[in-house]
Design brief:
about 1050 residues, alpha+beta, about 20% strand, elongated
């Protein structure tokens, strides 16, 4: 079927469809969901279980190991990483990246079932495990709510108000708060007053436990009415607690406030706290619904906050933006839209200069229609507008005009040759439709491995394939049906042929090409050896290229992780972070500092790591005046903080898609912690001797002291005290026994019972802590001997009560109170104990180069039997991405070869084209070395795309050679003439792609991709025009004239 002739017969339909593409595309641009980055499903979940009182090793063996064994049977798991702390088990499960996004929720349901099955196997005292599977939830809007002069409770109330109101907005999925401190009531028993007034701790505990419980008292039937009955004597205020009656000496009725200090406070230690520029704050994290336009949602949230501030929030309450994605999306998309427009202008100008104003204008109009039409199709398919999809358009810009260039060039040649006008408009389309379709499909297939790659990096760049596939196919259709229609109206060139009707190639460029081809055809093997030498030289140069995985995001913000060894008091964390914040605020390039203590506020950004909650952890979110000042000062600030706080791990981190906690990690696996320590220490020593790395640490914490009570069972039993009584009584001397709660309005207050010493201070010497029975037992006390003494009067009632309800100093029922040392955390990986030596590259050093500086020495550390070494961090992420990217590469090659064989009905011609592919590498290496760009994952994607571009050019040239030889042209002449004939379309296609990339060169994410394509395409195109004719002459044994 002649598509171009059909288009001429249906002009009005074509014009109508073009209008639909333009108007629909414009509408789609406005309506499309706009994001900063593509949506990525984070396939992580965490199982959290508390086991109060257990050591890290107890938690590992009795909780973590039990849960892990059950979880591992669920399938589809990539790895299980666990940390067993004192009192706490954290198990992180990562699914295989090949698990489809739609199946992830089903996997988490299976995880819940496996955890539930293991619940019966956990020890008594362990809580029900909680499964958290919301790690992929990104809160794109993160505010700090501050209130000048407001109490914590008032600020919390206003935060809840904001949460309720914002949650109602269309497009808002959920709102979370961070940094709320839990209120409590501390009842601190004063030992001296209790002794003077004859009050026993056990009696206080029993009274408190009974007083605040909700009891069921039934219903009263009154005629036709059924009325609920209740005994309402629960606490309503703090004063009610103090008024409780307690039994004292001689049946005295005492109030609790007579023997205890009752205070409102906050639970200690505080698990989560937040400050904004030194001012206490609450974090408000807002997530937009999936598929919504975050810019529109952001405007709605801002409007609601302004309304609340004007009408319902008091003066002094402010909402400060910490991370506000709508602004970043607007800025990022704005930059890429400008890049897109610049790219279109560059391409059209080049075409106008090289092919004439009218020809350039026709191709430019076709290009604009293609872009708008592609937006329409993407919107219809549920696509989003973000930096990757827009970068794909810039990347495709040169390729989108390739088909139109070939058609216009063919029309011009036929018109100048004096052909019939309709024949001139349609002949080139009829002749090249299938070769151009094959070339277009090959250009698309080159990016197929990216689309099929299931890991994070592949999913992130997947839109490159989708946009290229849609836009390139549309450009092929428009080149055949719309370009001839416009050419028919606008192109009227003069006839330009010699007396034989043959096209004449004038100009120095054509003369140079002819000379080079004649020389190459006369010295074929010399040319082949020269190309091979060039390729070997580029392979040698590869080792000097800068290597990387993913570039850092260009933000004016970074975050700082601060970690002390486990066992440090959280007050030290608070003090150090306050000092660091003061130092940072004193620097003129820093505008705001947000502090969070105890953990990460939330995943407010896709491209950052999330820390495990810990009392010895804190982090700062630091805003700079600009991205440039951030880059300029980050190393200086890092050096100062590392020197000022040598016993803390402090790391300034820029946002990066590779959000691993540490860039370089050497992980040792095996059964014995002592041997793992030795191995990790050996690796750490190597790192410390290597200047290419810095910020060295390990994930197995130093041992911490533990106060161990040697419980004297015979002495305790004689006094009717159990081991549980000792533990509970010690809790009153340390953290306090939780004995219930009461509500003040909607505010919950937990109640804790504590014991103070004679001076009203916390007990320092635990040997003097009073031990009492929480459930007094009469067994062994009301025996025959006791009854005889009671009857004889030798044992008074008071002495008997003292025996049952009294308390005993801890030192009387313990052999000794000793200090021992134990591990505060036990890390495991896939069921094996593990220890990692971790570090970061020194400033100015690429991660892989830094790793290679230590890799050989660390890999040579002798490993005992049963122990292994695995590289984690950026290395494993990079290796996995490369594995998935290249595992589908053979499929792409097979499809390309199949298309070439279908086009040429010959196997030698595809081999000739494929022989040119290595020449891409020459140009890539040269440009990477000249520009100093990092050869990272995105550059590799660009290099794969080059294969399609090169084959596309090769098809156009090979098709012309085949056509001329089939027409009976002398073979050598056909080779030279074909190269001349296709010089302009091939060079124009390459130049438009190369120069269209200029706006992307300065982009942090896609700059290396642009450089790789520009260098590789320029070099490979020049070589292709010479190499294909020479290889053709060799393969088909064509002799020189």
């Amino acid at each position: 079927m002649d598509i171009s002739k059909w288009a001429f017969r249906n002009r009005n339909l074509i014009y109508f469809l073009i209008a639909v593409l333009l108007l629909g595309g414009a509408y789609s641009c406005y309506q499309m969901s706009k994001l900063e980055d593509p949506e990525i499903k984070v396939k992580l979940a965490m199982v959290v279980t508390t086991y109060p009182g257990a050591s890290a090793h107890q938690v590992e063996l009795e909780v973590t190991d039990v849960l892990e064994k059950n979880i591992r049977t669920m399938g589809n798991i990539d790895n299980i990483e666990s940390y067993s702390y004192n009192d706490l088990s954290l198990i992180q499960i990562e699914l295989l990246s090949t698990v489809p996004d739609d199946d992830v929720e089903q996997c988490w349901d299976m995880l819940r079932r496996k955890v539930s099955d293991a619940r019966a196997l956990l020890p008594e005292g362990a809580t029900t495990p909680i499964v958290k599977d919301d790690f992929g939830n990104v809160y794109g809007m993160f505010y700090a709510l501050t209130g000048d002069g407001l109490s914590d409770r008032e600020l919390s109330d206003y935060a809840e108000l904001v949460k309720r109101e914002v949650n109602e907005l269309e497009g808002v999925d959920r709102v979370e708060l961070y940094g709320k401190r839990s209120e409590c009531i501390n009842i601190s028993l004063l030992q001296d007053r209790m002794a003077n007034l004859g009050v026993k701790p056990a009696e206080v505990l029993a009274t408190l436990n009974g007083q605040n419980k909700t009891t069921y008292t039934g219903y009263y039937e009154n005629g036709e009415n059924r009325i609920r009955v209740t005994v309402n004597d629960k606490f309503k205020t703090v004063e009610d607690i103090g008024k409780m009656l307690i039994q004292g000496h001689d049946d005295d009725q005492l109030r609790l406030s007579d023997i205890a200090r009752i205070e409102k406070a906050y639970e200690d230690p505080t698990r989560n706290e937040m400050f904004y520029d030194h001012e206490r704050a609450l974090g408000i994290l807002i997530a937009a619904s999936s598929g919504s336009d975050i810019i529109k949602v952001g405007h709605a949230v801002e409007s609601k906050l302004e309304e609340l501030k004007a009408e319902r929030l008091p003066a002094g309450v402010e909402c400060h933006k910490i991370f506000y994605q709508p602004e970043r999306v607007g800025s990022s998309l704005g930059t890429f839209v400008i890049n897109l427009i610049e790219s279109v202008i560059i391409v059209v100008l080049i075409l106008m200069i090289a092919m004439g104003f009218k020809s350039g204008l026709i191709i430019g109009i076709s290009l604009v229609i293609t872009v708008f039409g592609s937006f329409l199709f993407l919107y219809s398919a549920g696509g989003t507008m973000q930096r990757v999809s827009l970068a794909a358009f810039v990347l495709a810009m040169g390729m989108l005009v390739d088909n139109a260039i070939v058609i216009i060039d063919g029309i011009l040649v036929d018109l100048k040759a004096g052909k019939n006008r309709m024949e001139a408009m349609t002949a080139i389309g009829r002749q090249t439709a299938m070769p151009l379709l094959g070339a277009t499909l090959i250009a698309i297939i080159a990016f197929l491995p990216i689309y099929m790659s299931p890991d994070t990096a592949g999913v992130y760049t997947r839109d490159l394939f989708i946009v290229l596939a849609v836009s390139l196919l549309l450009s092929w259709i428009l080149a055949l049906i719309h370009v001839p229609l416009m050419a028919d109206r606008r192109l009227h060139p003069a006839i330009d042929t010699d007396s034989s009707g043959k096209r004449v190639y004038k100009g120095k460029i054509y003369a140079t090409l002819r000379s080079a081809l004649r020389f190459g055809l006369a010295h074929r093997w010399s040319f082949v050896f020269a190309m091979t030498g060039l390729l070997l030289l580029s392979v040698f140069g590869y080792q000097y290229m800068r290597q990387g995985f993913f570039p850092d995001m260009v933000y004016d913000q970074l975050y700082m992780e601060y970690k002390l060894p486990e066992g440090n008091n959280y007050t030290r964390v608070v003090r150090d972070l306050e000092e660091i914040e003061t130092y940072l605020k004193g620097r003129e390039e820093i505008t705001h500092v947000t502090t969070s203590i105890g953990g990460t506020p939330g995943r407010y950004n896709l491209v950052r790591s999330i820390a495990n909650p810990s009392l010895s952890y804190g982090e700062l979110i630091i805003d700079f005046t600009s991205p440039e000042t951030l880059v300029e000062h980050i190393d200086e600030i890092q050096a100062y903080l590392s020197q000022a706080y040598p016993d803390a791990y402090i790391k300034l981190k820029r946002y990066n898609l590779m959000f691993k906690k540490y860039p370089i990690e050497a992980q040792f696996l095996g059964p014995d912690p002592a041997i793992l320590h030795q191995l990790a220490d050996s690796a750490r020593a190597i790192m410390e001797r290597t200047p290419e790395v810095c910020l060295i640490t390990t994930d197995w914490e130093p041992q911490v002291p533990v106060l161990t009570i040697e419980y004297d069972q015979p002495s305790a039993r004689a006094l009717g005290l159990s081991r549980n009584d000792v533990s509970l009584s010690l809790l009153t001397a340390t953290g306090g026994i939780p004995i219930g709660s009461f509500y003040e309005g909607i505010h919950k207050n937990n109640i804790y019972l504590k014991c103070l010493d004679e001076k009203g201070e916390p007990i320092e010497d635990l040997g003097n802590a009073q031990v009492f029975s929480s459930l007094p037992s009469l067994n062994g006390l009301l025996n025959e001997e006791t009854m005889v003494k009671l009857k004889a009067g030798t044992l008074s009632k008071e002495d008997l009560v003292e025996s049952i309800m009294g308390s005993t100093p801890l030192k009387q029922i313990s052999k000794e109170i000793d200090i021992r040392w134990e591990d505060p955390v036990v890390p495991r990986y896939n069921g094996q104990r593990s220890q990692r030596a971790q570090c970061s590259p020194a400033p100015g050093i690429e991660t892989e180069k830094a790793r290679l500086a230590i890799a050989e020495q660390i890999e040579n550390i002798p490993l005992p039997e049963g122990y292994s070494l695995v590289w984690q961090g950026e290395k494993i992420a990079s290796d996995q991405s490369m594995k998935y990217l290249f595992q589908n590469f053979p499929l792409a090659i097979i499809l390309m070869i199949a298309i070439l064989i279908m086009l040429f009905k010959d196997y030698r011609k595809p081999i000739i084209i494929f022989c040119c592919i290595p020449m891409i590498f020459v140009g890539v290496v040269v440009v990477m070395l000249l520009t100093g760009k990092v050869f990272n994952f995105v550059a590799i994607v660009g290099t794969l795309g080059l294969i399609g571009m090169l084959i596309k050019n090769g098809i156009v040239l090979m098709d012309e050679i085949t056509l001329q030889i089939n027409e009976g042209v002398e073979p050598i002449t056909a080779l030279i003439d074909s190269s001349q004939s296709r010089l302009r379309p091939v060079m124009m296609a390459s130049l438009t792609t190369i120069l269209g990339m200029i706006p992307l060169l300065s982009d942090a994410m896609f700059g290396s991709l642009a450089a790789a394509i520009m260098g590789g395409l320029l070099c490979s195109t020049l070589i292709t025009l010479l190499f294909i004719p020479i290889l053709y002459a060799l393969f088909f044994k064509i002799k020189n004239n």
